[in-house]
Protein backbone atom coordinates (compact mmCIF):
# COMPACT_ATOMS: atom_id res chain seq x y z
CA UNK A 1 0.00 0.00 0.00
CA UNK A 2 1.31 3.44 -0.94
CA UNK A 3 0.33 6.44 1.20
CA UNK A 4 0.34 10.14 0.32
CA UNK A 5 -0.41 12.71 3.04
CA UNK A 6 -2.96 15.39 2.26
CA UNK A 7 -3.19 18.90 3.71
CA UNK A 8 -6.29 18.14 5.83
CA UNK A 9 -5.22 16.67 9.17
CA UNK A 10 -5.64 12.90 9.41
CA UNK A 11 -6.24 12.57 5.65
CA UNK A 12 -4.20 10.71 3.09
CA UNK A 13 -4.59 9.04 -0.26
CA UNK A 14 -4.01 5.30 -0.30
CA UNK A 15 -3.04 3.23 -3.29
CA UNK A 16 -3.71 -0.41 -2.43
CA UNK A 17 -1.55 -3.25 -3.71
CA UNK A 18 -4.56 -4.48 -5.73
CA UNK A 19 -4.61 -1.17 -7.69
CA UNK A 20 -7.56 0.52 -5.97
CA UNK A 21 -7.34 4.07 -4.64
CA UNK A 22 -8.94 5.10 -1.37
CA UNK A 23 -9.09 8.19 0.75
CA UNK A 24 -8.39 7.84 4.46
CA UNK A 25 -10.06 10.74 6.23
CA UNK A 26 -12.06 11.74 9.30
CA UNK A 27 -15.66 10.57 9.26
CA UNK A 28 -18.18 13.23 8.25
CA UNK A 29 -21.90 13.59 9.02
CA UNK A 30 -22.50 13.23 5.26
CA UNK A 31 -21.15 9.67 5.49
CA UNK A 32 -24.26 8.55 7.39
CA UNK A 33 -26.32 7.41 4.42
CA UNK A 34 -23.46 5.74 2.51
CA UNK A 35 -22.47 3.88 5.69
CA UNK A 36 -26.04 2.81 6.28
CA UNK A 37 -26.35 1.62 2.67
CA UNK A 38 -22.97 -0.17 2.75
CA UNK A 39 -24.04 -2.10 5.85
CA UNK A 40 -26.07 -4.40 3.59
CA UNK A 41 -22.81 -5.38 1.81
CA UNK A 42 -21.34 -6.77 5.01
CA UNK A 43 -21.61 -10.47 5.69
CA UNK A 44 -23.36 -11.55 8.90
CA UNK A 45 -19.98 -12.72 10.18
CA UNK A 46 -18.37 -9.30 9.55
CA UNK A 47 -21.20 -7.63 11.46
CA UNK A 48 -20.92 -10.07 14.36
CA UNK A 49 -17.14 -9.64 14.57
CA UNK A 50 -17.49 -5.85 14.80
CA UNK A 51 -20.63 -5.51 16.96
CA UNK A 52 -20.03 -8.75 18.96
CA UNK A 53 -23.53 -9.97 18.13
CA UNK A 54 -25.70 -10.11 15.02
CA UNK A 55 -27.64 -7.01 13.99
CA UNK A 56 -29.78 -6.74 10.88
CA UNK A 57 -29.46 -3.04 10.11
CA UNK A 58 -27.95 0.20 11.25
CA UNK A 59 -30.81 2.34 12.49
CA UNK A 60 -30.84 6.01 11.50
CA UNK A 61 -30.25 6.86 15.19
CA UNK A 62 -27.18 4.63 15.43
CA UNK A 63 -25.72 5.92 12.16
CA UNK A 64 -26.29 9.49 13.32
CA UNK A 65 -24.45 8.75 16.56
CA UNK A 66 -21.57 7.10 14.65
CA UNK A 67 -21.15 10.00 12.22
CA UNK A 68 -21.78 13.02 14.47
CA UNK A 69 -18.85 12.97 16.87
CA UNK A 70 -17.90 15.04 19.87
CA UNK A 71 -14.31 15.94 18.89
CA UNK A 72 -13.31 16.24 22.55
CA UNK A 73 -14.09 12.57 23.27
CA UNK A 74 -14.52 10.76 19.95
CA UNK A 75 -12.46 10.18 16.83
CA UNK A 76 -13.24 8.16 13.70
CA UNK A 77 -11.56 7.64 10.37
CA UNK A 78 -12.96 6.04 7.24
CA UNK A 79 -11.30 4.48 4.23
CA UNK A 80 -13.58 5.43 1.37
CA UNK A 81 -13.70 5.90 -2.35
CA UNK A 82 -11.95 9.14 -3.38
CA UNK A 83 -15.26 10.97 -3.76
CA UNK A 84 -16.87 13.69 -1.60
CA UNK A 85 -18.41 12.59 1.71
CA UNK A 86 -22.00 11.56 1.10
CA UNK A 87 -21.12 10.08 -2.30
CA UNK A 88 -18.23 7.80 -1.37
CA UNK A 89 -18.71 4.15 -0.48
CA UNK A 90 -17.05 3.52 2.89
CA UNK A 91 -15.14 0.25 3.16
CA UNK A 92 -13.42 0.57 6.53
CA UNK A 93 -13.96 2.49 9.76
CA UNK A 94 -11.82 2.93 12.86
CA UNK A 95 -13.02 4.79 15.92
CA UNK A 96 -12.16 5.66 19.52
CA UNK A 97 -14.56 6.83 22.22
CA UNK A 98 -13.22 8.12 25.52
CA UNK A 99 -14.96 6.52 28.49
CA UNK A 100 -16.69 9.32 30.45
CA UNK A 101 -14.74 10.39 33.52
CA UNK A 102 -11.64 8.37 32.61
CA UNK A 103 -8.46 8.58 30.57
CA UNK A 104 -9.35 5.36 28.74
CA UNK A 105 -10.55 5.02 25.18
CA UNK A 106 -12.46 2.15 23.61
CA UNK A 107 -11.62 1.38 20.00
CA UNK A 108 -13.52 -0.39 17.26
CA UNK A 109 -12.41 -1.26 13.74
CA UNK A 110 -14.29 -2.71 10.80
CA UNK A 111 -12.63 -3.52 7.50
CA UNK A 112 -14.94 -4.95 4.85
CA UNK A 113 -13.93 -8.26 3.31
CA UNK A 114 -13.68 -6.37 0.00
CA UNK A 115 -10.68 -4.47 1.44
CA UNK A 116 -9.24 -7.16 3.72
CA UNK A 117 -5.57 -8.13 3.69
CA UNK A 118 -4.42 -4.75 2.40
CA UNK A 119 -3.03 -3.37 5.68
CA UNK A 120 -5.99 -1.12 6.43
CA UNK A 121 -6.66 -2.57 9.88
CA UNK A 122 -3.07 -1.95 10.93
CA UNK A 123 -3.09 1.57 9.47
CA UNK A 124 -6.37 2.44 11.18
CA UNK A 125 -5.19 1.06 14.53
CA UNK A 126 -1.95 3.02 14.36
CA UNK A 127 -3.91 6.21 13.66
CA UNK A 128 -6.27 5.49 16.58
CA UNK A 129 -3.30 4.91 18.90
CA UNK A 130 -1.73 8.17 17.70
CA UNK A 131 -4.95 10.12 18.39
CA UNK A 132 -5.29 8.53 21.84
CA UNK A 133 -1.71 9.50 22.70
CA UNK A 134 -2.31 13.07 21.51
CA UNK A 135 -5.36 13.14 23.81
CA UNK A 136 -3.07 11.96 26.60
CA UNK A 137 -5.13 8.87 27.30
CA UNK A 138 -3.64 6.27 29.62
CA UNK A 139 -5.09 3.25 27.84
CA UNK A 140 -6.76 2.10 24.65
CA UNK A 141 -8.89 -1.04 24.81
CA UNK A 142 -11.35 -3.03 22.78
CA UNK A 143 -13.51 -6.12 23.13
CA UNK A 144 -12.89 -8.79 20.51
CA UNK A 145 -14.58 -12.12 19.89
CA UNK A 146 -12.12 -14.89 20.76
CA UNK A 147 -12.64 -16.34 17.27
CA UNK A 148 -11.58 -13.07 15.58
CA UNK A 149 -8.01 -14.23 14.97
CA UNK A 150 -7.23 -11.37 12.56
CA UNK A 151 -8.03 -8.65 15.12
CA UNK A 152 -6.36 -10.54 17.96
CA UNK A 153 -3.25 -11.05 15.83
CA UNK A 154 -3.14 -7.35 14.97
CA UNK A 155 -3.56 -6.40 18.62
CA UNK A 156 -0.75 -8.78 19.62
CA UNK A 157 1.54 -7.38 16.92
CA UNK A 158 0.94 -3.82 18.17
CA UNK A 159 1.67 -4.64 21.81
CA UNK A 160 -1.84 -4.98 23.23
CA UNK A 161 -2.20 -7.46 26.06
CA UNK A 162 -5.13 -9.85 26.27
CA UNK A 163 -7.45 -10.65 29.14
CA UNK A 164 -10.53 -12.83 29.22
CA UNK A 165 -13.79 -11.20 30.20
CA UNK A 166 -14.95 -13.33 33.16
CA UNK A 167 -18.63 -12.46 32.73
CA UNK A 168 -18.55 -12.55 28.91
CA UNK A 169 -17.42 -15.96 27.65
CA UNK A 170 -16.10 -15.73 24.13
CA UNK A 171 -14.93 -12.12 24.52
CA UNK A 172 -11.30 -11.08 24.87
CA UNK A 173 -10.45 -7.57 26.02
CA UNK A 174 -7.26 -6.23 24.48
CA UNK A 175 -5.51 -3.35 26.24
CA UNK A 176 -2.66 -1.06 25.28
CA UNK A 177 -0.99 1.07 27.94
CA UNK A 178 -0.26 4.44 26.36
CA UNK A 179 1.56 6.13 29.21
CA UNK A 180 4.15 4.63 31.48
CA UNK A 181 4.43 5.43 35.15
CA UNK A 182 6.88 8.21 36.00
From TrEMBL:
<dbReference type="GO" id="GO:0016747">
    <property type="term" value="F:acyltransferase activity, transferring groups other than amino-acyl groups"/>
</dbReference>
<feature type="domain" description="N-acetyltransferase">
    <location>
        <begin position="22"/>
        <end position="181"/>
    </location>
</feature>
<dbReference type="InterPro" id="IPR016181">
    <property type="entry name" value="Acyl_CoA_acyltransferase"/>
</dbReference>
<dbReference type="InterPro" id="IPR000182">
    <property type="entry name" value="GNAT_dom"/>
</dbReference>
<protein>
    <submittedName>
        <fullName>RimJ/RimL family protein N-acetyltransferase</fullName>
    </submittedName>
</protein>
<keyword id="KW-0808">Transferase</keyword>
<dbReference type="Pfam" id="PF13302">
    <property type="entry name" value="Acetyltransf_3"/>
</dbReference>
Amino acid sequence: MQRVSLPQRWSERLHLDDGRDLLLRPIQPEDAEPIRNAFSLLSPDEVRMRFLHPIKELTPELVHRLTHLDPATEFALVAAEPLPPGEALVGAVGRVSVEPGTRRGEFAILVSRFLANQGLGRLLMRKLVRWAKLKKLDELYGDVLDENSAMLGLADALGFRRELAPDDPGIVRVRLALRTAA
